[in-house]
TrEMBL record:
Pfam entry (one): ABC_tran
Organism per entry: Streptomyces parvulus
This protein's record includes keyword Signal: no
Entry similarity comment: Belongs to the ABC transporter superfamily.
UniProt GO molecular function: ATP binding
Protein's UniProt keywords contain ATP-binding: yes
Localization in the cell: Cell membrane
Predominant location category: membrane
Superkingdom: Bacteria
Domain ABC transporter: residue ranges: 3-232
Protein name as it appears in the record: ATP-binding cassette domain-containing protein
InterPro entries hit by this protein: AAA+_ATPase, ABC_transporter-like_ATP-bd, ABC_transporter-like_CS, ABC_transporter_ATP-binding, P-loop_NTPase
Length: 250
């Protein structure tokens, strides 16, 4: 089951400029990379999908449930750009707390927190104070918090931002492995190098409009034929962006 946007419009504040206008989009199967320039609306889209904001018009839904319903919120997990360590809590307690907020019973959340930390290779740090974790470790705690309640759609807002290339690759591999037949992962980034070959799908958002969504191979095919393999993702992105800009100015 996936999240669908049906003719959604959204702006911040009552009369704020529309950030998303009449957006219709379904989060694809597998692992999807959401690309777009700064300010395109990627975080906004993820927050709407996560039920943190509600559309001014239109509906965000998963099957029969709309994003206004608590049953919907239990099916999705949103990971913010910045993970704030909770004072006085261990890594395990912080993850369990998120599970509890999502409606899990305490013992269930406690057990699930350890399993989730294990999936992100942090089981050995479960009892360390969250405040004492490194930036990369905190991101792992963020991913564990997204996994703890068994959501069907994981919404990750720039989880690799600010990482060096090696860290970025390790972290991206970890995230890629989270997508299964039952679990979809939508990960935003404005760094095209995040488009690893393992990504199943690519969605491009520009100025609040989806200008491309489809299989990674179809996206890469937008690059000029003679583009070297190492530059294909970037060239494809440039080509999609240029086409959208040209259509806009018509
Ligand atoms: N809380 C807010 N109040 C008012 N405007 C906001 C708020 N959050 C975001 N915006 C505006 O909404 C637009 C889209 O922002 P958003 O953060 O969704 O883009 P983004 O694609 O995620 O950008 P980035 O890659 O820089 O994180 C921007 O113009 C931004 O200034």
């Amino acid at each position: 089951m996936s999240i669908s946007f049906e003719s959604c419009s959204f702006g911040y504040g009552r009369a704020g400029t529309p950030i998303l206008s009449d957006l219709t989009y379904t989060v694809p199967m597998g692992f999807t990379v959401l690309l777009g320039p700064n300010g395109a609306g990627k975080s906004t889209l993820l927050k709407l999908a996560g039920g943190l904001h509600q559309p001014r018009s239109g509906t965000v839904r998963m099957g029969d449930l709309t994003s206004r319903e608590s049953a919907y919120l239990k099916q999705v997990a949103w990971m913010p750009q910045t993970i704030i360590p909770m004072t006085g809590l261990s890594a395990r307690e912080q993850v369990a707390y998120t599970g509890w907020l999502k409606g899990m019973k305490r013992p269930q959340a406690w057990d699930a927190a350890l399993s989730a930390l294990d999936r992100v290779n942090m089981a050995d740090r479960a009892d360390v104070a969250a405040k004492k974790l490194s930036g990369g470790q905190l991101r792992r705690v963020g991913v564990a918090s997204a996994l703890v309640h068994g959501a069907r759609v994981l919404l990750l807002d720039e989880p690799t931002a600010g990482m060096d290339p090696t860290q970025r690759r390790v972290f991206r591999d970890l995230i890629t492995g989270l997508a299964t037949d039952e679990v979809r992962v939508l990960m935003s980034t404005h760094d095209v190098s995040d488009l690893a070959e393992e990504a199943d799908q690519v969605t491009v958002l520009q100025q609040g409009r989806i200008t491309f969504t489809g299989a990674t191979q179809a996206f890469l095919a937008r690059a000029p034929e003679d583009t070297p393999a190492a530059r294909r993702a970037e060239a494809a992105y440039t080509s999609v962006s240029a086409l959208a800009t040209a259509q806009e100015s018509w």
